[in-house]
Amino acid sequence: MPGIYTEKEILSDALSAQKATTALFNTSANECVHEDVRQTMMHILNEEHEIGQDVFEMMHAQGYYPTPAADEKKVQETKQQYCQCAK
User: Fold this and answer.
1) Widest CA span in the chain
2) How many domains does the chain have?
């Protein structure tokens, strides 16, 4: 039954799935006792992030995920705020 879901719905679902997947692999990588397993989890996590980025870029290019430009002053304020937290 073609046409049940729109392209936007399919991509939104794919992005949600990638977000959930990366969260689970992140937790798994953080809780590994064995370094070889942890490295494998980190490799998979990186691949999953790349897939998520690809889906996001598709959505953004189609106008399904608009990201308005940030005000430069707010960008600088946020950077300063996080730099202070890291110290």
Assistant:
1) 56
2) 1
